[in-house]
Design a protein that fits this description.
nine-stranded mixed sheet, 9 strands, 13 helices
């Protein structure tokens, strides 16, 4: 995979010239390399780089050794996050090839350690996750005085989405967001709750009065549970009073899910409703609903559990937001890095990060597609 670092080579350096002991590209490269190897703090970044200083010096041509943790913190707190995210987006658009019908899930996540124990508002990020590629496509910060409804259109405007299916939870069930998705040449599948007047009630009435024209059943098992999802679809929009105000609206969706916990025998049931611009293909929509949850299971869970993002206490200026971007770059890079040992082809993300510092061949192989070596 083509590496991201060269896209950051033109980042404006926010430091005063007399304080530029270390090249900005080196500071960014070292931080990213260390995060791939398991670093979750600026102290970790410095310590990891110091252990491998000789190798990293030869790789990057470092003239003044390894920056201190204070230097890493200061630089990343000063770097403009919007400019960082623009360059991240450039990289993902270069390496990610979205396929026709690929689900792109949009979802938000708070960086829970960024609020200084309630003294400051939490940093909240909205990310786009490409399900089949298994990669983060881009992210934007939610402004403290707004919410995801304002941030989602900004993120959508950045992405190339033609032919994709964009899925969003109930917060994103807005006419303006549906319109933006259609403008980008994509279809939408939006979860619906009680935030849109009588829309949810009218969808329930539609299925009650008109039934469904197609159904699909999927059964998934894993993590000690069995889930059965039945998808019902209806394209008759007579019960939806303002149907024409929803750009491209074609289909109403009801998902009935039953989860059975093998260990306890407990059974839970849930019914969810959606609106979509897709045709009434129950199997396709059922699959898209399932793939949406990849943003939780394969992105947010990894960031919290494997990358320790929720436990991070970074709060100085832009540090939390920029470190979150390093986490996402590292996650993208490692997902598409293969261990040289064929027996370890399906390593977990946790093991891949550990392998970086235990197996220099694997780390070097992952890094060489990421940085521009010295000379």
């Amino acid at each position: 995979m083509i590496g991201p670092i060269r896209h950051f080579s033109d980042m404006p350096d926010p430091r005063m010239k007399r304080k530029r002991l270390h090249e900005l590209s080196h500071v960014i490269s070292l931080a990213l390399i260390a995060v791939m190897g398991g670093a979750t703090s600026w102290d970790d970044v410095e310590d990891t780089c110091e252990v491998f200083e000789d190798w990293l010096t030869g790789l990057l041509g470092l003239k003044n050794g390894i920056p201190s943790h204070d230097t890493f913190n200061r630089v990343f707190s000063l770097l403009d996050p919007k400019q960082m995210e623009e360059r991240f987006l450039r990289w993902t658009q270069e390496v990610v090839k979205l396929t026709e019908g690929e689900v792109v899930a949009i979802d938000g996540k708070s960086l829970r350690g960024s609020g200084e124990g309630g003294a400051k508002p939490l940093v909240h990020m909205v990310s786009a996750w490409a399900s089949k590629n298994g990669m983060v496509l881009g992210q934007v910060k939610v402004n403290e005085k707004t919410n995801e409804i304002k941030a989602i259109p900004e993120l959508l405007s950045m992405l190339i989405l033609k032919g994709c299916i964009v899925t969003i939870d109930a917060m994103g069930c807005q006419k303006g967001i549906a319109e933006k998705i259609r403008e980008r040449g994509a279809d939408y599948l939006l979860s619906t709750k009680g935030n849109q007047g009588r829309l949810l009630e009218q969808i329930e009435e539609s299925f009650g009065h008109l039934g469904s024209e197609a159904t699909d059943t999927k059964i998934d098992s894993g993590h000690g549970r069995v889930e059965t999802r039945v998808c019902f679809v209806q394209s008759d929009l007579r019960c939806i009073e303002d149907a024409k105000q929803w750009p491209g609206l074609r289909t109403l969706v009801r998902i009935e899910s039953t989860r059975f916990m093998k260990k306890t025998g407990q059974k839970t049931q849930d019914t969810r409703y959606y609106i979509s611009s897709l045709p009434p293909d129950a199997a396709k929509i059922n699959d898209a609903v399932r793939e949406h949850w990849g943003v939780e299971n394969k992105l947010h869970w990894q960031l919290d559990v494997t990358f320790g993002e929720d436990a991070s206490l970074k709060s100085v200026k832009n540090a939390a937001q920029n470190f979150s971007l390093l986490n996402r770059i590292a996650l993208n890079q490692l997902k598409h890095s293969e261990h040289p040992n064929p027996r370890k082809k399906n390593m977990s993300m946790r093991r891949k990060r550990l392998a970086c510092t235990h197996n220099q061949q694997f780390w070097h192989q992952s890094i060489m597609t990421m940085v521009e070596p010295a000379g």
